[in-house]
Design brief:
The chain is mainly alpha-helical and 477 residues long. It is built from 19 helices and two strands. Helix 10 packs antiparallel against helix 19.
Length: 477
């Protein structure tokens, strides 16, 4: 059983949502230098840059996560009311509107409003996309297609970095950075218009009404390739019914009513308390490893130690991130979830310690130009991304259904994603101020010590070790 050409088009259409999510995670990274008035202003109808200090830039960056938190909190309601296809249209509309406002923004407030709206669209969409892919895929390839969500995210990050390298350069023109945001608007708008040609999730239809079975089977025949029947005639192939092992029947009702998020969080049953602790610690460890600090601020992190090469190293990071998306598909089954997770944690911890040390030495010697520590910094940022991608990235999401009883999986997923957005917001908002605090002040401050700019990564290493030690002790597999 496989997807038909139209089925692949449907999957590509929904994968545009995680692509947009990844795109906006990193879109301000490459544009920071031109957004923050580090280049000369040229009179124009639209300002070529904005007055952005580190805290303001962090606030504009992190407001995306507040929008994402709001969107993810409403995603379940929207999916039940408007269906999977209707919710995808809503997600794309928010992303298109936010991208347009950012593209045409004339001040920092409008830039922030646009980013907040794209966050809402991404928050809705990142809940929807993996669910929709799982529901339209034949069971035999559903787990394989599940990687497309993560692949869409890392491809989005890669494209925004690639476009940013050129459109943030002086040769591109003073307002060329707006084209990077216009690209996101175009992708989201195409998705809105394509929605009318897409299909509803067969499993969603079955869950809403038993009478929708015929419509669901018609959709499955359209998006799946079936075995050819007698004489090579596709029409002779038996039609899918509810007993077909590839079909997706409505989820069965168990002996327990599904828990709500508030019940799971504030009054969890005895058999849910430990899974709740494990999942929450895994999500905190995932985000407080510092991965999004690297993705959001890799240019800024490296600009003091690698003033000429920082943006190219950032682009290299995204290439590594794309490549390393594929190994977990095989390694999760061969090594097991827990060994793979802690192999990843060990690599990330070592990388953070060495990265902090190398950035300190490189920063202290910055006045003499690049040194061997400059190279070490670049290598261990890439090694950190590789370590994260093979375990810390995918496993915290995979583990939810394995550690929780069936009736609590949905609510734990909601709590996990909300916590993911909250910790992501905290990292994006506090990273630059914390880095400046630990190094004596912002660059340009007379008390700023470039030989201490790497200390912030030791904070991440300590938090990672603390929370993942809880997961190690409590997660029994």
């Amino acid at each position: 059983m496989a997807l038909s050409p139209y089925g692949w088009l449907v999957v590509a259409w929904i994968t545009a949502i995680p692509f947009g999510y990844g795109y906006h995670i990193s879109v301000l990274n490459q544009l920071h230098s031109v957004l923050a008035c580090e280049s000369s202003l040229i009179p124009n109808n639209l300002p070529t840059c904005f007055e952005l200090n580190d805290f303001t830039f962090s606030a504009v960056t992190s407001v995306f996560n507040l929008g994402g938190l709001l969107g993810s909190a409403q995603a379940n309601v929207l999916m039940e009311k408007f269906g999977r296809r209707g919710t995808a249209r809503i997600s794309a509309l928010f992303t298109a509107l936010g991208s347009a406002i950012m593209c045409l923004s004339g001040n920092v407030s409008l830039l922030g409003i646009g980013r907040f709206l794209t966050g809402i669209g991404s928050g809705i969409g990142i809940c929807l996309a993996p669910l929709y892919i799982a529901e339209v895929a034949p069971k035999s390839i559903a787990s394989t297609l599940g990687v497309l969500t993560q692949l869409g995210i890392v491809l989005g990050i890669f494209f925004t970095q690639l476009l940013g390298v050129y459109f943030s350069s002086p040769d591109a023109g003073p307002n060329a950075w707006r084209l990077v945001l216009f690209f996101s608007f175009v992708v989201a708008l195409i998705q809105v218009f394509m929605t009318g040609f897409m299909v509803e999730s067969p499993r969603y239809l079955r869950s809403k009404s038993l009478r929708a079975g015929d419509e669901a089977r018609a959709i499955e025949r359209r998006i799946w390739l079936h075995d050819v029947g007698v004489g090579g005639d596709p029409a002779a192939s038996p039609l899918l019914d509810e007993r077909d092992p590839e079909a997706h029947p409505a989820a069965p009702h168990g002996n327990f009513s599904a828990l709500t998020a508030s019940q799971t969080l504030f009054n969890p049953p005895a058999d849910v308390r430990l899974p709740l602790l494990i999942v929450c610690c895994a999500m905190v460890g995932q985000q407080f490893s510092g991965i999004n600090a690297v993705l959001y601020y890799s240019n800024d992190i490296l600009s003091q130690a690698l003033p000429e090469l920082g943006k190219y190293v950032s682009l290299g990071i995204t290439v590594v991130n794309v490549i390393m998306t594929f190994p977990p598909i095989l390694l999760i089954e061969k090594l097991g979830r827990k060994p793979l997770l802690f192999f990843s944690v060990a690599g990330a911890f070592i990388s953070l310690i060495v990265l902090g040390m190398s950035l300190n030495f490189a920063g202290a010697a910055a006045s003499t130009g690049p040194t061997a520590w400059t190279t070490v910094s670049s290598v261990f940022i890439i090694f950190f991304v590789m370590s994260f991608a093979i375990g810390l990235g995918p496993v915290p999401f995979v583990m939810i259904s394995e550690v929780a009883p069936f009736y609590a999986v949905s609510s734990l997923s909601t709590i996990a994603l909300s916590l993911n957005w909250l910790t992501n917001f905290s990292v994006s908002l506090l990273f630059l101020p914390l880095r400046n605090l630990l190094s004596g002040g912002a660059p340009g401050n007379p008390h700023h010590d470039p030989g201490k700019i790497g200390r912030v990564f030791w904070v991440f290493a300590a938090i990672l070790a603390l929370v993942m030690s809880v997961v190690w002790r409590k997660w029994k597999v």
